[in-house]
């Protein structure tokens, strides 16, 4: 059993790294043995925070570098952060850990909506989802990184071709704005970036992410928030509308694009872990439209989904004692 498992990734040798939100990074062998990786940064395990995503450097096979996202405490509140470090040859310790990005501002009165998902672009820049920390309006404020997707270089510097780079009063790492709590982020095989995020009461979203676009939160939504019905995306064509939204919510966790053929007919589809939806939700994209094409009920809140080296689908159950499971296509 894993304690609050949140994310996983396959190493080139077939073993897995799994994060536990309570703060441990676990090395899982192909026969299911669990080890802990030493040297992980101190995290703030509180509310929806803790150790969140793990990603491999695009040049991992030569540099052994991994990236971790997590919430951290500071005197002025908690915030999302991203650190990088080098995995040892036996994969059981991390060295040279350096924080390369921090959400701004910190939030002192809430421990929700950190986002925290990471994805590498084909150009090897790192995209990170930063939730709006349950603050709403700051998702529209380009002077901060609440409710944004940010793009940074692997050393934490900011690409000069980012949409707001060098503009006064903006954070140069911002790629897109107006997000609520994005937990899914995938570069598709065609190079386009797709994101899933939790809506409020209704209105979960599956978005195609465009450079510099605003996704509308909390000015528009397909849901209601705290009893207030929000204007729909259709009322504000200046905001990017989701390709697909869900009411009632599925509460999307992790997401992949399935690229194998072990699950027949799924190749190219997006597969979303669903917490409230208690299973997997399969989405097919055609051009710039998307449709839900299937659900796999699994009877538990599913936090994360990943594709194994042989094309199998692996999932993490959510919660205090979640299982890591391999799904059988039959
Ligand atoms: Ca939106």
What would your notes on this structure say?
The strands form 7 sheets. The protein has a 4-stranded antiparallel β-sheet with strand order 1-2-3-4, with no helix packed on it. The two termini are 25 Å apart. It has 330 residues and is mainly beta. 1% of the residues lie in helices and 43% in strands. The protein has a single domain (5-327), classed as Neuraminidase (6 Propeller), CATH 2.120.10. The chain binds calcium ion. Calcium ion is lined by residues 205, 215-217, 242.
Query: In angstroms, what separates the terminal alpha carbons?
Result: 25 Å
Bound molecules: calcium ion
Question: What fraction, in percent, of the residue positions are helical?
Answer: under 10%
> Uncertain runs with pLDDT below 50, 5 residues or more?
none
> What is the arithmetic mean of pLDDT?
98
Strand line-up in the sheet with most strands:
1-2-3-4
What sort of overall outline do the alpha carbons produce when their principal axes are compared? globular
Describe the biggest sheet? 4 strands, antiparallel
CATH superfamily: TolB, C-terminal domain
DSSP, total strands:
25
Task: Give the CATH level 1 class.
Answer: Mainly Beta
């Amino acid at each position: 059993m894993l304690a609050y498992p949140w994310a996983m990734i396959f190493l080139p040798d077939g073993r897995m790294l799994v994060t536990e939100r309570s703060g441990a990074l676990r090395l899982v062998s192909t026969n299911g043995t669990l080890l802990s990786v030493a040297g992980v940064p101190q995290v703030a395990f509180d509310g929806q925070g803790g150790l969140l995503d793990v990603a491999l450097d695009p040049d991992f096979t030569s540099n052994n570098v991994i990236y971790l996202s997590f919430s951290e405490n500071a005197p002025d509140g908690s915030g999302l952060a991203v650190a990088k470090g080098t995995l040892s040859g036996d994969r059981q310790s991390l060295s040279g850990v350096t924080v390369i990005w921090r959400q701004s501002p910190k939030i002192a009165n809430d421990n929700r909506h950190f986002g925290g998902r990471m994805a590498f672009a084909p150009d090897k820049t790192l995209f990170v989802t930063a939730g709006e920390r349950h603050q709403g309006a700051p998702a529209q404020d380009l002077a901060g990184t609440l409710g944004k997707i940010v793009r940074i270089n692997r050393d934490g510097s900011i690409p000069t071709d980012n949409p707001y780079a060098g503009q006064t009063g903006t954070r140069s790492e911002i790629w897109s704005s107006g997000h609520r709590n994005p937990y899914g982020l995938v570069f598709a095989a065609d190079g386009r970036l797709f994101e899933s995020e939790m809506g409020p009461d209704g209105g979960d979203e599956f978005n195609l992410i465009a450079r510099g676009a605003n996704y509308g939160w909390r000015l528009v939504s397909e849901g209601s928030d705290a009893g207030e019905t929000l204007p729909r995306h259709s009322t504000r064509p200046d905001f990017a509308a989701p390709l697909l939204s869900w009411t009632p919510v599925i509460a999307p966790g992790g997401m992949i694009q399935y690229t194998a053929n072990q699950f027949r007919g799924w190749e190219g589809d997006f597969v979303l872990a669903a917490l409230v939806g208690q299973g997997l939700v399969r989405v097919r994209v055609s051009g710039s439209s998307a449709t839900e094409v299937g659900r796999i009920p699994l009877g538990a809140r599913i936090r994360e989904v990943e594709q194994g080296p042989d094309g199998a689908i692996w999932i993490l159950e959510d919660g205090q004692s979640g299982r890591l499971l391999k799904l059988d296509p039959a």
